[in-house]
Amino acid sequence: AIVWDEYLTGPFGLIAQYSLLKEHEVEKMFTLKPGRLPQADVKNIIFFVRPKLELMDIITDNVLREDRGRSPQRDFHILFVPRRSLLCEQWLKEQGVLGSFIHREQYSLDLIPFDGDLLSMESESAFKECYLESDQTSLYHAAKGLMTLQALYGTIPQIFGKGECARHVANMMIRMKREFPGSQNSIFPVFDTLLLLDRNVDLLTPLATQLTYEGLIDEIYGIQNTYVKLPPEKFAPKKQGEGGKDLPTEPKKLQLNSAEELYAEIRDKNFNAVGSVLSKKAKIISAAFEERHHAKTVGEIKQFVSQLPHMQAARSSLANHTSIAELIKDITTSEDFFDNLTVEQEFMSGIDTDKVNNYIEDCIAQKHPLIKILRLVCLQSVCNSGLKQKVLDHYKREILQTYGYEHILTLNNLEKAGLLKPQTSGRNNYPTIRKTLRLWMDDVNEQNPNDISYVYSGYAPLSVRLAQLLARPGWRSIEEVLKMLPGPHFEERQQLPTGLQKKRQHGENRVTLVFFLGGVTYAEIAALRFLSQMEDGGTEYVIATTKLINGTSWIKSLMERLEPAPF
Amino acid sequence: MSRARADEEEYWHSSKFRAFTFDDEDDELSQLKESKRAVNSLRDIVDDDDDDDLERVSWSGEPVGSISWSIKETASSSSSSLEGRDSSLQKGSSSYAAFPKQVSSYSLSNLFKGRNKLPSFQSLSDALSDTGIKNYAPELRRPKAEYKDYSSDWSPKDTVRRMQRGKVCSLERFRSLQDKLVLLDEAVAGHDGNVITAVLIFLKRTLRREILFRELEVRQVALCHLIHFLKETGEQKFLLDLLRFLDRTEEVALSQYREHLNIQDVEKRREFLKVCIGLPFSAEDTSHIQDHYTLLERQIIIETNDRHLETAGQSEIFRKYPRKASILNMPLVTTLFYSCFYHYTEAEGTFSSPTNLKKTFKIPDKQYVLTALAARAKLRAWDDVDALFTTKNWLGYTKKKAPIGFHRVVEILQRNNAPVQVLQEYVRLVEDVETRLNLATKYKCHDVVIETYRDLKDRIQLTAYKCKVERGSAEEEKINSILNN
After folding, report:
1. Which residues from chain B sit within 8 angstroms of residue A154, using beta carbons?
2. Which of A140, A159, B265, B423 has a CA between 20 and 30 Å from the CA of residue B205?
3. Can you supply a Gene Ontology BP term from the record (chain B) (predicted)?
4. Given an 8 Å threshold on Cβ–Cβ distance, is A566 in contact with B124?
5. A409–B46: do the CB atoms touch at under 8 Å?
């Protein structure tokens, strides 16, 4: 039997279904929780866990409560994902249970495929570890993952990077390669370029509300390992005679990925362009079903019938996305969403970033969720290269008075991460960065975009702009701005044996792997996919990251875990 | 377990998501409506009773075959029959969620399918591992002894490398300080936090504190790892000693202050916070911590009094509006609201009076007025609301003034279901004409609308507004008389 750390079931579900495990003689599976292990007629118990101390305590509890007298006695094993932790083993030893485990191994799961062009390590605390605690273990894992990737897809000849963490990862890769010359392989390289980007080079983008279809689904409902849970009301089956008497109460769970034709088409569009696609699709499907009236001969009928399954799949997919779009529309048309967006856009275009904002004050007064407040205040701080001391103090005071003084710990974390800080240099660099990188576009086309700024309806994500400018005309043109952004920028080359050097056909696309250290948002992914599809783009992008994030999950990962108030 | 899960999901459903209503008249939504209609009409054409979802979904909403699904399945059937197991097996194998189709021409998914099937595949760990040890699913059970490595001639570098590969090495033979430091430096150079921490645990056990601290001071990376490790394992005292040694005073202060969250008893918590005031915070933070302490002190006094009052049943306000929760550990603004609700008329001298709170904590006017307004409006004490905005100038004339803008006042009053007579008094005070008109129309303050149009001399709008008021009402008469002048 396998006992799962519940967090791991999501990512593992993407690579191995239960049926596969069953084939390998996994009898039963349980989730890890304190207390006695469930009864099961099995010999071996394997714990699949992340190396976390609190999980070790649960395992200890499990093992200690195991009935010693039972026969046959069960054997325990532990599998750490992604890496064995000596700290955890030490912990188990102190609890006196380490000896109970016959095997202690690791399952080196670094990068998990989320889609055809997307890999994630799903390491939720990577940003916090790197930037708050200076713990570079997740970078080590990232480098390992990249080495595995190179073992599969060939050595990547060019490495570019921006930021401290990017520098570290590149160094580790070079070091690993040097130390293990055996890793030299003879695979023709798939990737031409690797671009390593630190999340703290672009703190702005995740704070803004994503406006693509997929981005909004994530902002509002949260996508977990490609699954989303939605309120069920809109998905009630509307069949005749039932009159909606039994509304489903369980949230509707849907998988979202590019295997679904319709979703692949609309996921990266600006939400304002989704409605028209859906209605067009509806017409096409209606027309397709109408075809049956014209089918006269047996052959024609047969052909129609053979298409039915596909048409039905398309129809149910359309039904789902129409319902989701309705749910989202209810929110995006609300007054508060509009006000919030207006303020965000003002900040990003550089308006009134140096004084206390009325809307933020109002939200605090009305006790809107703290995370929303923090997102806005941080956004303002980033768009102003730090807040004036007086403004910062004002916000701090209001937040502490309204939400509780203990949040001083969270504010302190945000300050350490550079998200919320006083303006120290006395100079605001953001306008220069904005203008040089064309981060704000006034004439944005949401329906037929011609620039990546469509993903935020005006704001072009800084991170993706850096990738775009790297491809053409190259970073030399923006040296000045790169110096204003934190961390070093660099270029490394990895020698390839002559036989493997690519001779590029004319018009053939280059392939760049962009690795976001510290997380990436769906809107940024959409922007990179948009660049891949540009006819004269010349570059295709594959994306890797430590974690898929949005502003809310990101800020949450930086908040101090506060014990519930004792009542 | 599955029961607990269901409860949790129900909770999610009931609290987080509210039902949305779909506005039929909204033109912007017509496209969505259209496709919805089309979809629904199609159901008649293909009338199949089976659900036509793309993937099979079990009752719990999990896709069949997913890991989390089968865990539930196993859990619910584990104690009972064989039958349950069979069916789960059957269902489990009946579907296999499709892998995402590739948008890009390069598939990354085969990265994780069985490695033996791909002869060309050579993973890093396979290629590098000198013993051929498998990373997962070992076939044979090996004697425990094999895991221990008693060989003692590994260099620090080799030791670190072996540990990176997940093997247990004995560190005991690194005896001299020199050796230990070389080992640490090697570990740091490898960037693997796991190994660094392991070495640190060893050093922490075998070195004197002063020496460890001194050496770490010049090794920042290792230092960060030790701090992280100490936080994780909760070795607060050791951590504070270290931070103090490093002179990172603010961190000491914050770290110590964090401790208060673990103290459940309010009296003890108050005592603890009192000590925190003296910690070396930044000037700004010190004042916040001071406030935190004062607030809790205040709350304890108020709580004791009010609980007494409530149980005695003498006080009308507590009888009429019993308290929902204790005020202990609530934020300042919540406390202010509470005090405006239950103790509004008290003299400034008492600890529970709003004015006293305002003074003690230097609550800005704006915040104070907003909170007081919300509390008094909730009690429908309209006279108090009126008094809140009335100021007398030196000639004795009264004047209405609001530090928050009257449109906000109107919103708050409206949310508390204030009657139209009360509402319109404040709508009238909204300065911006357009906002005033909007609010007045929205909340049906007819008099204000009429007067505003009169002042604007807008006959057309005024005539148009006639159909919004009741026929034969005083308002209609008013409109008519204005129009006739």
Report:
1. none
2. A140
3. intracellular protein transport
4. no
5. no
A103:B329 CB<8 A: no
Residue B37, domain member (yes or no): no
**Hey, of A2, A7, A18, which one would you mutate to test binding to chain B, going by the most B CBs within 10 A of its CB?**
A18
How confident is the model over A408-446, as pLDDT tens digits?
A: 999 999 999 999 999 987 789 999 999 999 999 998 899
Pair A137, B192: CB distance under 8 Å: yes
- State the average pLDDT over residues B91-107: 39
Looking at B418, B439, B460, the residue that finishes a domain is B439
Nearest Cα residue in chain B from A542: B104
The interface pTM score, or ipTM, of the predicted complex is 0.84
Task: Tell me if A275 and B112 make a contact (CB, 8 A cut-off).
Answer: no
Q: Do B61 and A252 touch (CB under 8 A)?
A: yes
pLDDT digits (tens, 9 = 90+) for A342-391: 999 999 999 999 999 999 998 998 899 999 999 999 999 999 999 999 99
- Nearest Cβ partner for A251 among B9, B40, B53: B9
Token duo for residue B170? 């004995």
Is the Cβ–Cβ distance between A212 and A269 less than 8 Å?
yes
Determine which of B104, B252, B276, B367 to mutate to test the interface with A (most A C-beta atoms within 10 Å). Answer: B104
Please report the DSSP string for A61-96 in residue order.
Answer: HHHHTS-TT-SSPPEEEEEESS---HHHHHHHHHTT
Shortest distance between the Cα of A77 and any Cα of chain B, in A, equals: 10
What is the rounded CA–CA span in Å between residue B448 and residue A248? Answer: 47
Residues B431 and B456 in one domain: no
Higher pLDDT, B82 or A239: A239
Which of A4, A116, A251 has its CB closest to that of B67? A4
* Long-range pairs of B51-55 with CB within 8 A, sequence gap ≥ 24: B51/A237, B52/A312, B52/A313, B52/A315, B52/A316, B53/A316, B54/A260, B54/A313, B54/A316, B54/A317, B55/A255, B55/B95, B55/B97
Helix (H) or strand (E) holding B364: none
Contacts of B87 in chain A (CB under 8 A): none
E strand or H helix that includes residue A48: strand A44-49
Q: Say what the pLDDT of residue A412 is.
A: 94
Cβ-in-10-Å burial (0-12, 13-18, 19+) of A262 comes to middle
Kindly report the backbone phi and psi dihedral angles of residue A489, in degrees, each rounded to the nearest multiple of 5, phi listed first: -115, 150
Q: Which position has the higher pLDDT, A136 or B61?
A: A136
| Residue B236 vs residues A410, B101, B232, B255: alpha-carbon distances, Å | 19, 50, 10, 8
* Closest approach of B178 to chain A, Cα-based (Å): 23
Residue type, A534: M
Q: What domains does chain A contain, in order, with CATH numbers? A: 2-109 (3.40.50.2060), 113-205+461-553 (3.40.50.1910), 213-232+251-333 (3.90.830.10), 336-428 (1.25.40.850)
For A305, the 3-state DSSP assignment is helix
Query: How distant, in Å, are the alpha carbons of A543, B125, B272 from that of A86?
Result: 31, 19, 35
Question: Is B141 within 8 Å of A102 when comparing Cβ atoms?
Answer: yes
pTM beyond 0.90: no
- What's the domain range around B222? 153-247
